[in-house]
Amino acid sequence: MQQIANYINGQAVASHSGRSQPVFDPATGVAHTEVSLATADETRSAISAAATAFVSWSQVTPLNRARVMFKFKALLEQHRDELAVLISKEHGKVFSDAQGELTRGLEVVEFACGIPHLLKGEHSMNVGRGVDSFSLMQPLGVCAGITPFNFPAMVPLWMFPIAIACGNTFVLKPSEKDPTVPMRLAELLTEAGLPPGVFNVINGDKTAVDVLLTDPTVQAVSFVGSTPIAEYVYATGSAHGKRVQALGGAKNHMLVMPDADLEQVSGALMGAAYGSAGERCMAISVALCVGDAVADALVAKLQSEIAVLQVGPGTGVTPEPQMGPLVSQQHAAKVRSYIDAGVAEGAVLVADGRQVAADSAGFFVGPTLFDHVSSAMKIYREEIFGPVLCVVRVPSFAEGLALINQHEFGNGTAIFTASGEAAREFAAQVQVGMVGVNVPIPVPMAFHSFGGWKRSVFGPLNMHGPDGVRFYTRMKTITARWPSGSMPTGNQFSMPTMK
Amino acid sequence: MQQIANYINGQAVASHSGRSQPVFDPATGVAHTEVSLATADETRSAISAAATAFVSWSQVTPLNRARVMFKFKALLEQHRDELAVLISKEHGKVFSDAQGELTRGLEVVEFACGIPHLLKGEHSMNVGRGVDSFSLMQPLGVCAGITPFNFPAMVPLWMFPIAIACGNTFVLKPSEKDPTVPMRLAELLTEAGLPPGVFNVINGDKTAVDVLLTDPTVQAVSFVGSTPIAEYVYATGSAHGKRVQALGGAKNHMLVMPDADLEQVSGALMGAAYGSAGERCMAISVALCVGDAVADALVAKLQSEIAVLQVGPGTGVTPEPQMGPLVSQQHAAKVRSYIDAGVAEGAVLVADGRQVAADSAGFFVGPTLFDHVSSAMKIYREEIFGPVLCVVRVPSFAEGLALINQHEFGNGTAIFTASGEAAREFAAQVQVGMVGVNVPIPVPMAFHSFGGWKRSVFGPLNMHGPDGVRFYTRMKTITARWPSGSMPTGNQFSMPTMK
Amino acid sequence: MQQIANYINGQAVASHSGRSQPVFDPATGVAHTEVSLATADETRSAISAAATAFVSWSQVTPLNRARVMFKFKALLEQHRDELAVLISKEHGKVFSDAQGELTRGLEVVEFACGIPHLLKGEHSMNVGRGVDSFSLMQPLGVCAGITPFNFPAMVPLWMFPIAIACGNTFVLKPSEKDPTVPMRLAELLTEAGLPPGVFNVINGDKTAVDVLLTDPTVQAVSFVGSTPIAEYVYATGSAHGKRVQALGGAKNHMLVMPDADLEQVSGALMGAAYGSAGERCMAISVALCVGDAVADALVAKLQSEIAVLQVGPGTGVTPEPQMGPLVSQQHAAKVRSYIDAGVAEGAVLVADGRQVAADSAGFFVGPTLFDHVSSAMKIYREEIFGPVLCVVRVPSFAEGLALINQHEFGNGTAIFTASGEAAREFAAQVQVGMVGVNVPIPVPMAFHSFGGWKRSVFGPLNMHGPDGVRFYTRMKTITARWPSGSMPTGNQFSMPTMK
Amino acid sequence: MQQIANYINGQAVASHSGRSQPVFDPATGVAHTEVSLATADETRSAISAAATAFVSWSQVTPLNRARVMFKFKALLEQHRDELAVLISKEHGKVFSDAQGELTRGLEVVEFACGIPHLLKGEHSMNVGRGVDSFSLMQPLGVCAGITPFNFPAMVPLWMFPIAIACGNTFVLKPSEKDPTVPMRLAELLTEAGLPPGVFNVINGDKTAVDVLLTDPTVQAVSFVGSTPIAEYVYATGSAHGKRVQALGGAKNHMLVMPDADLEQVSGALMGAAYGSAGERCMAISVALCVGDAVADALVAKLQSEIAVLQVGPGTGVTPEPQMGPLVSQQHAAKVRSYIDAGVAEGAVLVADGRQVAADSAGFFVGPTLFDHVSSAMKIYREEIFGPVLCVVRVPSFAEGLALINQHEFGNGTAIFTASGEAAREFAAQVQVGMVGVNVPIPVPMAFHSFGGWKRSVFGPLNMHGPDGVRFYTRMKTITARWPSGSMPTGNQFSMPTMK
């Protein structure tokens, strides 16, 4: 069986940890690869390689760092289909969805190609007479990324292209569930001309994570995952003096107004709820319908759509199904248990995905729809991260908005409406970081920034876009005066102010 | 004796804590005021007042929030001398220095007057066909500031004008050693038209601090103080999910090149080392002389300058002395013990401030100069925060630079030279956040940002300037599409990418 | 009778031109002041004073230049009512409207207070190895403003606060119809501490204008007025090598969609069409109604509103009328002749303002409403600049949009609708510089920029906001390298590129 | 003989003008190509193709427009050597220099790849209560570029990548002396996927230029060339209502301070004065030596360097010479006549290039050095645009600076010094747009902007960098309010201000 370990200093390096775990094809339930779980020492060796590489990489001009990104972009395009298949084979999502993931990640590389412009500091002449002040945005050193299984390419690509373009070096700890694509990204970076040690991959578990969070060489940690781990990462990394951005869970609501086009709403919801089997932090898992008429019509519409939705392997089947398996047997079981809980709590189970493809060895759960869900139910309060959509009925825009604002999470949300007023008020008042207006999955583009509010995010700076550049740089402010006649020669004991 | 407690919801509020401590005039050693130490409940009541005020203050337009700042600026100018006297009476610094502090704080208010421009988000039409994306920079809610004794006006003014202009409300916990000026700032804000509850002051100690760090209502914490406390604040606030910026200690080196004008160097050093009795986080406490010739000449020059330096009360004496007392008896004793340690470690004590003004009941320590200090000595390694200057001799620019980069702290530094090359290399390579070129105390102006590197700072965003605005705002990104014919009506199961 | 001449070098200076003209109170038709028309030499003396003042003013730090603006703002607030009366007495607009004009002008002063931040250039370290590049935004020298009668305070305030804050000096040539307020602004600037010669006022006609457009000392010209003069100014100033921004005429359409709230539409239209007697470059002069039902209802509603609209003097009458006189007898006659033409061309005259207040010696024309106006009519094609509103009926959004886009002018426009889609498409497709969505007079705020499209504007940069700062500064880009070992010593004959 | 005509609507199109002229290889004096000179109608057909293409190209999303630029960059890299040979064969510069030109042009394409970020407008929520304002940066329409012979690739690449990425379409009128490379660029753009009509090339003379300057469809004109033509272009284009940026001539001084390293100075000067045979608008043509000692030593050093400088064909000779021929026989004759004039005016001719390679049929003039040049001489006052360097002796920094500031042109300049003070004062005070500190040819990088001061530039916006984006976009500001309860329903007659 194929063995995956670590990528350190420009090459794949075997692990001596003695610990490993299988990597499954979720569509078949068969393990095709084994991934080793790195030791603390191995993790430290990656950090050390990155620290060594930083010395020279940070001195490469931004223009030349960008040129590596230009080449990396070309390689990503060239290998897009190969990578999409790899994603599907380990994550389970369908091929076209994996292509979409890659495009979104690629766009961050495109953004990072503009780093010479993005790294500009500010320059002020004569902040005082004959005194100038300017700022430099310098790289931090070794940065770490810890990324989830659900986007094995896109989420790492939110982080390292910008970190590296800024002059940092990087250690990525991807999910151990789908490690192959991150390793391929490392190879492509090397092929693009990135010097050894600038980008490293450590496959591992909490052992590796804890080294990344505590090793004093690591300057910054970027994390995407569940909220409890995000909190742990934020608290631990911060307690060790690092800057941390940690993105956590979500329960994204779509508010469906009575003036929305239900055809569009149901189309958008089907994709946003069941695409990628609901394993997206921007998936819509709650449809808030304003009024029973909207809810009744929408549920009926969804029910008929679900009836024809095809569930199957992400690759190798023609035509492509709309939905693949979940990532693991355990996760599928957990999602089924949430469905059980919903039934037990009294929600109306309109479509039941628990037995879909039950004869397959793959980790399938079919599209599931609950109606009459209340905000007290567990299936409403918690993030299920599977193909389970809850319909909640609210009497008005205001109560819908209030419900969203009361939820623990504030990652994404959407409103579907024809009304400019409703859209504006929703955008202004909703306590959520990413807001769609007639857009079900409002993931900001690479040149804007990704991040939620409330317990969906920890740390002041979002991922990619201008915030990403700020996160991966340290400001240095120089204040300069060139004496001779202009400089006062007497002693100055008072707080200097500028004339 | 005058009693100072808290300022909550637009007015001074007495404390029921039963705990209090005296506030001294450091020049006389006499306590003239008593400050109560707030209870946890009192702290929570300030937070609660701020939370209530947030509801309406955050809805005031940026333009109108700015106009309160315009009025506050006018009041600060009108009351500048009164405030400077108050600073001197509690902190000890001389009157003209206190005026300088106020000017520097005032400049942040001026910067905050530009908030309508500074709060602009980004707008992109057609991120995809018919899809627009834009960002809003919205206020966080209740923010807290915890500030040190050495700048009772300036450091709070680094924080709250921007926080408030951004639409937040604020709870300030100033140093209990000089609480009067923060209370006056609160009164002037009210006079400027700031609604009750938007700005609150809690006088207290760790009890109050811990509430601010852990109360879930508080969204952000800004701190300036010593490194151990900065670390505690950063770790604790972060562990409670908040965004934190925590500025810590310093050991600021001035690198004196052989081509520097020694007249200018000694003038700059006298002010930077002994101004405000060395109680500035940007004070120069180490002069790194490149070559013995430079050191010998500089030490001789400083010695003669020290001989004529006047130490005395910060106000009421004409002509004004150059240096006032330290802030407290305990701190003066601690500084003296550092001098003892320096002698014990073998540094050459060129000027000894231990007995200066020894007949006064004030907390005086005179200007102290050590030569032949080595990097192993405690007086080199630790922040003394008093009028003690260490001369260290290095053979070259490179070794001077290396020494600075090896120090734990990286707050401020300066180089004195006539050489463009030396200045550029120093600015490029030094691992310090604020760098002066022939400027001894390179505090960035209000429209730039203040912050160090290494263990002088925790958190990615600096204070005031554009970073300050980013710190006190939460980004919200809206992605909007207006359907009708333009919107695809089919289901979309793949990761949406933009056409 | 009061004599107004020029303000040069910090004081009012009498004219020796021998040419002058009366300044009327349009509400009474009585001349209360005489304004001299400057000679070419007098104009050159103002330029010369400005050139001399530039030498030192450009060296004042931006921080201190901003502080003059802070004081000027305070003085404008203090004198607001006095200034509003002066505006009304010479322009005719009602007092509260004049107050509004002043507020809008004041906001540009507030924006200019942020000049230390706004003037920042960009700084890039290592554009090549060891090579840095940064930009300075430096003042131009002497700038000129030529402004129209309809906003004697606001339009000059769009220009000179930013020009001056950027370090330039300024010669203003305001309208000779209402010269008093510009002179008062000059006095208040002097009172605010602006040094003599930094701001100068020349009252005059084409003689003065032509000197400003051709004198080689003048670096930049800002103009607001009619399109033919804007073209002349742009062509002539450009032919003399200057940078020019010239804003011209307008014919602003409001597109009224069937889903708009007609109560709001008619309220908005009444103010936008008849406020300031229609003498605003952002007035709405065409209401495009989508469908006859909308048009019929709106016309009926407007007719009844017009019936109760009070016309009268802008000050001294209680309650304040809604509309004052036009600026001059000639202009009133011209507006009446347009009404005659509309009748002759077959438009339906719903309300006829020609005889309103006909017994007054003031220059009154009452609110006039035409229905069934076609795009071929003169009253549709030309800017009337009076209280004449044309209703044009279109069958659809698309035809309404097309009509707007076919018009010669593209200054402002508005759509009234409840539909997010209509608003977005309108904003995206309309070829007009300033677009209101349910906002009848979408004048951008001071921190955004003012400017139209098509023949409403000449020159690439708009007024005030960031564009204003760019217009009044010249970029200088420094590229620096500090040799020693790092610099190649061989000859380099090839186009240097950066490593 | 090869015939070159126009590139319109995605393909090469023959000309029916009947007018043409030969294109020479300046190294051999042999014409190898014939270029037709377009008629007015042919020029209009290119404009018309561009206007048609604008309709759809402006609707392509910035992201997708950028992707064409990414592909174009890859093609430029792939064809770099082929293009460099073509440049050398028509312009005469040596191959490695032509490669350098291409790299500099390529960098603008790289900058344009970041257009999705660069095109962002500003968004302000609540400029007034419930009122939002945001700006769009929309394309202009058809833009024109008129470019000189000396950089047949680089100067067009300063313009069209940004113009096109912004959504405009483009008509390029390159120099008729070296038309082949612009035509190849057009082909490569088509190969990169640019739709027909977006980029067009018209080869021609004043006939074509005048159409571009006067045709109402053309919205913007970018020009680089001599000052008289720049003035003509600026005046004519402006008189026809267009936005114009016109870059003219130069006389770039290098100020050599006594503390400069003469080895470095002479190396820098040899390249900056004689590279590309001095046919660069950023060439150094005047060396201002501070003090006779500097001048004597530098002249001696240059003389010996000139003695070994190889002049010869730009390609095909190994090792590559340092300098190729001038572009044309006429231009070579003109340069020789300037040398004659310098001798006649009394300058000391240290090295005489008039007879260099006199036996060749190529258009060679050798490196020429004058000493003791005075500011009154024609060779000092005028731009020679050939390999002629003038040494002027000045007694001090101040007089050197004054001389530079008195010159008609202000394109580029440099100072060579070791002094930070001299560099800073020079950068602050010199009235020149592009300033090198120990950098002889301080051409700003693509992400900064290129432009001079004084009579070297006409128009407020520089080329490429952020200014380039501003030049090629029109701002549209939307102000939006969504009524219902929030909107006042009464009539509003006063100037609307924001609450």
Automatic annotation (TrEMBL), chains A, B, C, D:
This is methylmalonate-semialdehyde dehydrogenase (CoA acylating). Keywords: NAD, Oxidoreductase. It holds the Pfam family Aldedh. It comes from the Bacteria. Coiled coil: none annotated. Residues 14-478 form the Aldehyde dehydrogenase domain. Transmembrane segments: none annotated. GO terms for molecular function: oxidoreductase activity. It is an enzyme of class 1 (oxidoreductase). InterPro entries: Ald_DH/histidinol_DH (IPR016161), Ald_DH_C (IPR016163), Ald_DH_CS_CYS (IPR016160), Ald_DH_N (IPR016162), Aldehyde_DH_dom (IPR015590), MeMal-semiAld_DH (IPR010061). The keyword Nucleotide-binding does not apply. Its EC number is 1.2.1.27.
